[in-house]
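Marked as duplicate of an earlier ticket. Keeping the data here for the record.
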Amino acid sequence: MVSEKVLIVYAHQSSGSFNSAAKDAAVEVLTAKGCTVEVSDLYAMKFKATATAEDITGKVKNADHFCYGEETKLAWEAGELTADITEEQCKLTEADLVIFQFPMYWFTVPAIMKGWMDRVLTLGFAFTHEKRYSQGIFKEKKAMLSFTTGSQESMFTANGINGDMNVTLWPLQNGILHYCGFQVLAPQIFWAPSHVPSEARGTMLESWRMRMQGLLGENPLAFTPLDCFDGENGYQLKPEVHEKHATKEFGLTVGIHLGKALPPNNQMKAGV
């Protein structure tokens, strides 16, 4: 049996942080299970966060009206992307599972991690108009978010001041990961570790270690397949799919909710 390859994209500056401990636990447990684990430590790498024309080593097609998506697609095809991008693309190509480990900043990933997504997931390499969502380029790969929050769990509920965490996760999990075809595993959320006693942080890490024992066999979160939408009609849900769910209590997903109540834990638990 070929060992699974895991890429951890890690964004925290401090080796004494909870995020560092979570990353180290993943490396230790997954390596012990026979996986090959590689870490992209973005701050240590001083990874460039801005998607600019400097990401292309060759000549650009239209310098007067520079379009990053189109230009990097051409550069990727010609082998003219900068080394920091191509190295990450090679790691991603080899990986069976990608874990993004980070502290949540302003309800999303830190800028340096968003820069990794903006620059590494280039048009052509990570997605095309035809190959996206359930028919995406990375549909044989799995990906997941593992992150810490500053707020306690109760604040990220449907009645909490921050709103439903399922809604917060939709742009990252559907709009980036699933868009590129990844099978998205349920997120590992460490709620406000800086506000709990050290024993509670130890319990959080232990639950993460336990989960990793079966992580690669987990079922992914549910998303509406691409073929449920009519490409000839603005990618609207097909009438027969709409009719099938007309009498159901909940919408299909957090984003495709059909004006109904959101399916509970749609972005946080598999099989719901």
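See parent ticket for discussion. The first strand starts at residue 5 and ends at 10.
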